UniProtKB/TrEMBL annotation:
Cofactor: pyridoxal 5'-phosphate
Pfam families on file: Pyridoxal_deC
Record organism: Isoptericola halotolerans
A GO molecular-function annotation: diaminobutyrate decarboxylase activity
Assigned keywords, A-Z: Decarboxylase, Lyase, Pyridoxal phosphate
Keyword Protein transport: no
Name this protein carries in UniProt: L-2,4-diaminobutyrate decarboxylase
Regions annotated as coiled coil: none
Region named Disordered: 502-526
Keyword Lyase assigned: yes
Family: Belongs to the group II decarboxylase family.
Amino acid sequence: MSLTPPDVTLTSTDALLNSGTAGVYARTVHRVVDDVAARLAAVDQPWSGASRTELAELVDGVDLDSSGVGTEDALRETAALYATHAVWFHDPAYAAHLNCPVAVPAVGAEAMLAAINTSVDTYDQSTVATLMERRLVAWANRRIGFAGGDGVFTSGGTQSNLHALLAARERALTGPDGNRLTGIARHGLQGRLRVLATAAGHFSVAKSAMILGLADDAVVTVATDASGRMDPDALAGALATTERVGDVVMAVVATAGTTDRGTIDPLGPVADLCDATDTWLHVDAAYGGGLLVSRTRRHLLDGIERARSVTVDFHKTFFQPVSASAVLVREPEDLARTAWHADYLNPVEDSAEVNQVDRSLQTTRRFDALKLWTTLRAIGPDGIGAMVDAVCDLAAAVHADLARDPELHVVSGTDLSTVIFRYQPDGVTDEQADALVARVRRVLFDSGRASVAKTVIDGRPCLKLTLLNPAVTLADVRRVLSLVRDAAHGLLAGQALADEHEPPCRDVHPHLARHAGDAVGPKEAR
């Protein structure tokens, strides 16, 4: 019986990276790097401005089921599609979300880890990589003030917050004997667990509560002051009320760098209340974590060392490529409660081996810590801290600039690098200014010339700049704000024309009413 030879396109190993294809790998990566470098140098706006319809047609036009075209042609085609229409966070006119330009040494490390493809779930898959990540976790803990803490790298702030709240839940569901509650006792108590956080906190807090099986009303909103920071008096009241009604506070979540305002909750007073009530304090410092290496603003995080857990996103204010985040805990046993063991991976009898899957929610996991390691060795913590200070200083300069602006008005202050404002010169009503926010943002985005964000503060829509590029100057930001003004002027002018009772065309168009009160239809029909 003869067998039909398999299709060589399905079995060929020529495309795999190994000793035999090392030369192909070098040539391929060099071509990609040269192409990306040329594009980086030529970028003159955040993105191409192509419409969603145009992009969908380009994407749908690629036949993913056809025979392969070869590595070189595939990468050339991919660059034409992806790189041409990507959003470039390094462009000075990009000021929308918490995206940063990335450190060059980290990009070099990214190439290294992608090719070697280490998974840091168990020591026997990673060896020195595990030890390097453990060293970085210890370094970050020392920066926070956790003398003997623990932690693990994650995919981002959402996963870090989820993991911290999972650890808090497991602590809350531990009996007096130190054992995990089960059965009816566990189910009954879990339904009474509550998480106290402000409305300015990250949405992942509520999402985590849902994933963790808490009650629908488990997240209790704590009031804020006029600046959007957690009000300690309101927290004290919420703690007392929760206990009075028979519920249990699983955790208080304070934010060190809210997504919208970039403000930091009063960590010291919040920690005082959590200490007094033996309550788990989690500090979400995904945005503000970069202050850990700031020479001028580290004091804004005073009190963070009293938290039970902390989230830090290195792919925000440490200028690392996505993804690079960590959840850090003051007490190592808090992560140990969430460990799970499998005979084929991390059996209990091998607990002396450094298997980070014991700490992580993930199994297979990239060696993202290598990027931060390399950046620290290249420019040092002070180098990163100087970049954090630069974007915060820039935001302060923009705030001062807008204080004298007759058309653009600052809505809220910041502790970090956020600018929240509205276009509202004299004569423009609140309602008109409200309507302009989304339209201005859309006009700028659709043109590809600038990218700004929008949000809602105290019930009013606002425009927002998130400044995370240390190379951007005040002049660069002024150019973006000039585009905002131009767009707003144009939209208002267009609206004024639309509101005219007798535009010239209405004298010749038979289907338009002549006056506001006229019926629509030809004059002869009236």
